[in-house]
Write a structure and sequence with these properties.
The protein is of the alpha+beta class. It has a domain of 102 residues: 3-Layer(aba) Sandwich (NADH Oxidase), CATH 3.40.109.10. The protein contains seven helices and four strands, in the order ααβββααβααα. Strands 3-2-1-4 form a four-stranded antiparallel beta sheet. The chain is globular, with a radius of gyration of 20 Å.
């Protein structure tokens, strides 16, 4: 139970979602889950998720923000059991809306071994979407802005929030063929 109000606090009216599709309604129903259905995702569903996470809109804008429009992130799809997509690691090319194979085979276990805890669910997910940041490019781009040498790294982390995982792709040693 909250304590009494102080003179520095301003009471707010309770938030009650009004319609089934509004933001409040979605937030009330939001839950984290690490259990998966038996139906693998289709290539069309993966395409939609990749586009929503890191794509380009019809008018040339991006679906995610980036400081100075640098976009230092790379989206990698690690497929293990996806309908219409062979097991492998694929880089998402937002400009052309294609997945480019960078490593054959099922790499979900490799991804799971890079985490510190709670990794077993990664092995069982049909596909994983990983975002990795190019810290070097961002650091060089913002090198002349204070605080010296650190702004670029901050932008990678801040502009895409928890989505940015700085060296996942490097640790997995995915290389272009």
């Amino acid at each position: 139970m909250p304590g009494p109000m102080t003179r520095r606090e301003v009471p707010l009216t309770p938030v009650r979602p009004t319609t089934a599709g509004d933001l409040g309604s979605l937030l009330v129903r939001r839950r984290s889950t690490r259990s998966f259905g038996s139906q693998p995702p289709s290539l069309a569903q993966i395409a939609h998720l990749a586009w929503a996470a890191h794509g380009r809109t019809a008018d040339g804008h991006r679906t995610c923000p980036s400081a100075h429009a640098l976009y230092p992130l790379t989206l990698t799809v690690v497929a293990g059991n996806a309908e219409g997509l062979a097991a492998g690691a694929y880089r998402y090319d937002a400009e052309r809306h294609v997945l480019a194979l960078v490593a054959d085979g099922d790499h979900r276990d490799r991804v799971a071994r890079t985490t510190l805890a709670d990794h077993d669910w990664l092995r069982h997910a049909a596909a994983l979407l990983l975002l990795s940041g190019d810290m070097g490019t961002a650091t060089r781009h913002f090198a002349d802005q204070p605080p010296q040498g650190r702004r670029g790294r901050r932008y990678v982390w801040l502009s895409d929030h928890e989505k940015a995982r700085s060296d996942t792709s490097r640790r997995l040693r995915f290389h272009h063929n």
